[in-house]
Structures are given as C-alpha cells and as structure tokens.
Design a protein that fits this description.
By secondary structure, chain A is mostly helical. Chain A is built from 21 helices and 4 strands. The longest helix of chain A is centred in the last third of the chain and has 33 residues. The two termini of chain A are 40 Å apart. In chain A, 58% of the residues are buried. Chain B has 5 helices and 7 strands, in the order βαβαβαβββαβα. The longest helix of chain B has 12 residues. The chains are: A mainly alpha, B alpha/beta. Chains A and B meet through α2, α3, α11, α15 and α19 of A and α2, α3 and β6 of B.
Chain lengths: 429, 118
Amino acid sequence: MLQYIVIALLGALAAVLANTGVAVFNDGFRPIVSEYREGQIDRKALAVTSFALSFGLVVGFGIPVSLAATVILIHSVALGTDIIGSFCPEGKVGMAISAVIGAVYGIGIVYGLQFIVDLFSKLPINFLDSLSQVGTPITIAFAIFPAVAVGLEYGFKKATLTAAVTLLVYQLTVRFGTIPMGNSKITLNASGMALLAGMIFLIVFAVRDKSDASNTNEQLVTVFSEKVKRIQKNVPILAVMGGLVAMATSLSLVIGDPISQNLVSEGDMMSAAMAALARAIGFIPLIATTAITTGVYSPVGMTFVFVVGLLVHNPVIAFVLGAVVITLEVLLLSSVAKFLDKFPGVRKCGDNIRTAMGRVLNISLLLGGMMAAQAIAPGIGIFVIVALYVLNKFSKKPIVEMAIGPVGAISVGILVNILYLLGLYTVAK
Amino acid sequence: MKKIVVGGQIDKQRIASMVETIAGDQATVEVKGDIEAAMAVKTGAADLYLGACNTGGGGALAMAIAILGLSSCSTISMPGNIKSEEEIKAEVEAGKKAFGFTAQDIDVVVPVLLKYVL
C-alpha cells in the first residue's frame, strides 16, 4: 500500500512541476520550457514537443527495460509526467488536473507492469525466470565503463591499463576480500571495488588534464543569474520532489538507470549505489548547464537522490536525506559550475562517462537478451535477437538500441507461446 | 569551406571522424564542449553545429537551443523516428544551423545531412 501512495505522490508532484515549468525530466525539454516561458512558443507547441521528445522513450525504452528487471526505470514515470504536465492548462486548475492525472499515471505504471508480469506467468510456457537473464551480463560487466571513458579521452593504452587494474582489483577482492571481524566477517563486493578502482583512475586522469581551461561556466552563471535565482526560489518544492524520489528508490519502486536497476534486481545494493554515484558524477555538467541556462531543474536533480535511496533502507530517512541532497545541489549550482571551469578534464569526463555507460549497456543488454532468448527457446531465441538487431538498422522507426535485448527476449517469450498454441512448438520435458 | 563544430553529449569523436571522412577538405571539424560549440556558431566562428545524445533533442541540442534559439535548431532523429532525406534537406534550406540526433542513428543521418550542407 505504501508503495502505491509513494508512487502516486511522486507522479502527482512531478506532473505539477512540469505543468508549472519548475522542473522537467527530459534534458532536451528544459530549453523548450524556457522558450515557452519567454513567449517564443505557445502552450500547444510546448505540449506537442514534449510528446515528440518523450513518448518514444517511454514506450520504446523505459517500459520494456523495466519489464525485464522488475524495478521501474524512472524514465517510465518522469517522461510521462513531463508530457502530462505540459498538456494540462496553466493556472490553479491546470495544476490540480496535472496532479490527479500524474498520480493515476504513477499508480498505473506500477499496477500495469505488475499486471503484465502476472499475465506472463499464466501463459502455457512461463518465460519469466529466463527473462531475468537479460540483466546478467550488465551486473558483471558494468565495472568496465570507467576504462571506456578513459579510452574516449586518453586513448587505447591508458584504457587498457585501467581495464587491467579493474580486473585485477576484481579478482583480488574475490580471493582475499573476506575480512574476519570477531565472530562475523565482512565480504567486500568485488564488482563494486573494481568499479571504484576504475573510477579513481578516470578521476585522476581527468583532474590532471588542464588543457583548454576556460571560464565558460563562470560566464554562463553571470549571464543567466536570473534563471539560477528562479530555480533557487523553488528549492522547497524541489526538495520534496527529491525526497519522494529517494523514498521510492529505497522502497525498490523506481531506479535511475539500467545498470543499477539490474544490480538491484540481483539484490546487490552496494554495487548499485556505486554505479548510480558514478553516473551522477557524469550527469553533473549536463544538468548544471541546462538548468543554469534555462531556469528549469530536473525532478530527480543531478540523480544523487538515487544513491541516497539505494544506501538508506528506511524510507522516511531516505526522504529527509533526499530532500537535503537536492537542496544542496540547487544552492551550490553556481559554485559547482564555476568549480568545473577549473577542471576542464572533469567536464569532458562527464560527456565521456555517459558515452561509455551507453556503449557498455548496449552490448551487455544485447548479450543478455540473447542469453535470455536462448534460455526461453533454445535455437530460435538467438536467431530472433540477431535478426531484430540487424533488421532494426533498416527501419525508418528503429527501436532504441539498448532496448533490443529486452524487447527481443520478451518477443521470443510471446512467440513461443503463440507457436505452442498453434502446435508448432513443444517443450522438452 | 564550412566550419563544423561537434557539441552535444555523447559519441563526439565518432561524429567528428565521420564528418572528416565524408567532407575531406570541404570542411574543418572541431570537437568542443556543447556551450563553446553553440557560442562558436552564435559568434560566427563556425557555420554548423552537430550533436548527438540518446534522445536526439535532449542533451544534443539543449545548449544550442538555449544559446541560438529554437528556430535555428533541428532534431533530425529521435528514438523511433528518423527524418527522411527530403525533410532533412528542407531543414537545411530553412537555414537551420544546429542539428541534433540520437547516437544510434549517426551512420544514417550524418551522411545525408552533409550532402546538403556542404
């Protein structure tokens, strides 16, 4: 029950924030909201643009990826509330309508996904257990992404060095990572330690890189000081929003990205928190610069609230800490941006972390999709995923590459059930 | 000789090397931070802004829209929807200066775009 209340509040508030233009989730929608507020485009254009930007991501990415992993990707909820908020009219009535639709939408997503999962389990050939294999490669391979980010900026040699150290730390932790403490013992998490080692390499390389130092962000903060003030004026409501997201995360209701999503599904909260933290560092420059230039924030802030939710298991404490984190982010917005000027390598590092995470996710989820499809239907499983991947390239409306694995594995599950009903497929007993 | 800057959020190196291969000596390419890249177009130091992100309109064009205005920017691919060659041609002819697309569609849209801007 608590779950439904939290997701309803989260959906309602996110929709209201989008409706009033205080915060929207889609990074690309923030400048559009800003254009709307300055009277460059009308409300109708705003609504249509939000639909165009976000709808494909909800149905093509957020929902299929959430189906395969049981925890809901925040994109499924927050991109939807962006659309809801911008379609509702302005003013008090519009806010009320946004809140109601947002709440219903939030519950609908949770209930709807549960409904689909229940439906799948009633099928003659149950493929849900095999479907969870979609996430298997990512829970092991995610620690490689700092090495990829190093490679993007500093080349193959440094990337190989980082990868080798990451692997070494992993194996050393597996072998010696259990520390006896009196009667009990602490087991260090190998993937988490490996990721940490990789991140240290990446950050050291980035901090040492002083090439093309500039004061771009400092100029931005000066030019757009009015917009920064607008965000800061909204701190109380943004804090509540952040608190709700942290609370929902601590209840394993929502999650910020597919890497930590799959780690949570495996019950590995420490690694999930570590991956979410690394991702948050990657997102600071993007969120900070779009927020400063547009005066519109994100309902999940710089995504540190997910880290809070993963580390704190008590939902009430998670709420309080989540609110504190967002408040700090907003109050420090200008300082963070100016600080990034001093370390240009760190700013580039943000772009590279996002590229690297995307690449690691693409290949891992594709491989996971193949493993799951093969487990569901040996033989035709891999055929279908490979076919989907290569044929998708010809499509005028291709599905998001990251979603091919999950979507493909689900399709194979449905396909074998149809074939079974037609008498074309038999289950090996 | 066109001056092209690559901004956006992800896969900048890949876009830059693709532009270099296709354009040869018809254009110069420079990878920049998204703010610097958009500023370069604003001040006339560059003619064209290219950027990718996971949504096409998202991080790819965020700074370009904030600095150059929505009317100078065009999203030529987003998840589940790639603009056709005619549509891209129309956007170029309409005088758009900043183009955003999803990273997964780089191979498809960048060659078409370059065909009309060079």
